[in-house]
Each structure stands twice: as structure tokens, then as C-alpha cells.
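Re: that backbone. C-alpha cells:
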């Protein structure tokens, strides 16, 4: 079975040559940074074939580290890159976006107040239009803003979007955290929306194998189908081991058939993003 971790942040330390923005400090998930070489070792230890690299916001709009990793290990790493939504002239970059080594699409988040405003006032409609024309898949983190994403999905039916972490925020746990799925389920009717079941152990106070949230995961798979639910770890902020983050999907979710696991654990996201295998 092909195993693909759909969400991994890798980053480099702040240096004068490659400085972080002022608001990046204190937001990093760990110290020292998780580098591609360390990640590759950890993947090999537990049998993960591939990973989608998602450059993190705290170090700025850098994609260079991920591109080097995908250049050195094209069979192991691909990228959902960072993109500056604050400047509409960046639309000119999108037609050639996927010519960058390893680049499969773009990851955008709407966590900071100014980012939330962009989504609320539709001032980034230029981005949705340009991404759809350029056939660029997106990973989106929009907690508490799913109605705005639904409007995008309806207006841009050819724009493939993945909702990260099931749109759950890390401040919530167990049923309180997963109650927000009631806003996510209606988006399943849009064929251009998939979901990333990533970092889910962070949203429960239960210990491995996290049985308190199995029912929620089952309903997500039933609602979206196994071809639109993608496993990922967000390894740099896990509250369990990397191997446990893998095995609770492969070994503990009895409702997943072997065919379901093939899709959820790797083939589904490769098909969605166009990463051949």
C-alpha cells in the first residue's frame, strides 16, 4: 500500500541570509527545525513512502527548502507551496506555478485577522479565478469560515480544494472540536472539495488509539467518500508518536476496508494532486 503523509511542515532556522518575518518568532512548532533530511529518516523508520511538504507561515513566503528537497528526492517529496495573497499582481505567477520542481499546488491559510478579512470581503477573488484557470489545486485552512469556502466552490467548480485538518482549530478537543464538522459536511456535495484528515490526535484528550474520535472519522469518510479523505500527520505538532499517527489509521479504524485504506492513505491524494505513482 502506498503511504503518503499529506501534511508535513519543514523549515530552516532564522538567519540573516534567510530571515523570518517579525511575527514568525514563537510560532514555530519545534526547535530545532524539522528539516527534510530528518523527516526522510523518520519516514523510512516507519515505512512512509512519500510526503507533501507544506512550507510553514512562520518563516515567511519561502519555498526554496521544499524545492531543494523535491529536487533531491523527487520520488519522496512534492510541495504545496506558499503564495502571497496580499498582492493581486502575483496572479501573473500562477500560469507557470507548477513548472517549479516538485510543485503540485498552493497552500493558503486564513488564521490571522487580515487573512480572515480577505476571505470575508472577497478581496482575493482574483486568486480563485487565476488558480482555477491555471488548474492549480489548493490546500486551505479556513477555521470557522466554511460558508465563504462554499461560495468559492460553487463559483469555481473546476478549482480543486482540500480543507486542511477538517477545518478544526487546535484549541478544541473531542466532541467540542468535531462539532464544527456539521459545517463541513454540506461541502461534500461539491465534487471539487476534499478534506485532509491530518493531525487528528491533537483534537482529543483520549490516548492512543484515540477511540473517542473514531466515530467522527467514520462519518467524514462516509460523507466525502474514501477518495476525498486524505490522511496526514502534521508531524511537527503531534501529541503522539509518528508510528502511532500512522497505525491508528492503518490498524485501528475497523470501518476502513482495504480498498478504502488504499485511497485514504495515499492513492487518493496523489490522484487529486496529479502526483503519479
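Recovered sequence:
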Amino acid at each position: 500500500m502506498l503511504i503518503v503523509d499529506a501534511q508535513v511542515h519543514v523549515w530552516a532556522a532564522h538567519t540573516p541570509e534567510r530571515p523570518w518575518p517579525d511575527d514568525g518568532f514563537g510560532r514555530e512548532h519545534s526547535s530545532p527545525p524539522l528539516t527534510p533530511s530528518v523527516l526522510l529518516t523518520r519516514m523510512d523508520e516507519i515505512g512512509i513512502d512519500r510526503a507533501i511538504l507544506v512550507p510553514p507561515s512562520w518563516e515567511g513566503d519561502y519555498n526554496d527548502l521544499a524545492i531543494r528537497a523535491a529536487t533531491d528526492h523527487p520520488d519522496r517529496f512534492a510541495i504545496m507551496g506558499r503564495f502571497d495573497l496580499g498582492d493581486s499582481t502575483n496572479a501573473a505567477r500562477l500560469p507557470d506555478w507548477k513548472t517549479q520542481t516538485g510543485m503540485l499546488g498552493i497552500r493558503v491559510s486564513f488564521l490571522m485577522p487580515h487573512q480572515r478579512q480577505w476571505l470575508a470581503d472577497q478581496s482575493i477573488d482574483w486568486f480563485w479565478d487565476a488558480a482555477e484557470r491555471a488548474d492549480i489545486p489548493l490546500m486551505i485552512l479556513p477555521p470557522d469560515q466554511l460558508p465563504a469556502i462554499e461560495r468559492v466552490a460553487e463559483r469555481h467548480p473546476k478549482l480543486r480544494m482540500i480543507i486542511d485538518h477538517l477545518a478544526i482549530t487546535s484549541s478544541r478537543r473531542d466532541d467540542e472540536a468535531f462539532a464544527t464538522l456539521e459545517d463541513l459536511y454540506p461541502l461534500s456535495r461539491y465534487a471539487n472539495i476534499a478534506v485532509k484528515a491530518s493531525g487528528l490526535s491533537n483534537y482529543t484528550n483520549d490516548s492512543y488509539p484515540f477511540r473517542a474520535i473514531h466515530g467522527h472519522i467514520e462519518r467524514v469518510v462516509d460523507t466525502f467518500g474514501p477518495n476525498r479523505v486524505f490522511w496526514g500527520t502534521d508531524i511537527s505538532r503531534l501529541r503522539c508518536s509518528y508510528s502511532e499517527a500512522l497505525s491508528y489509521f492503518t490498524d485501528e479504524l475497523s470501518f476502513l476496508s482495504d480498498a478504502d485504506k488504499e485511497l485514504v492513505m495515499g492513492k487518493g491524494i496523489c490522484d487529486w494532486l496529479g502526483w503519479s505513482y
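The CA atoms of residues 85 and 124 lie 7 Å apart. The mean pLDDT is 96.
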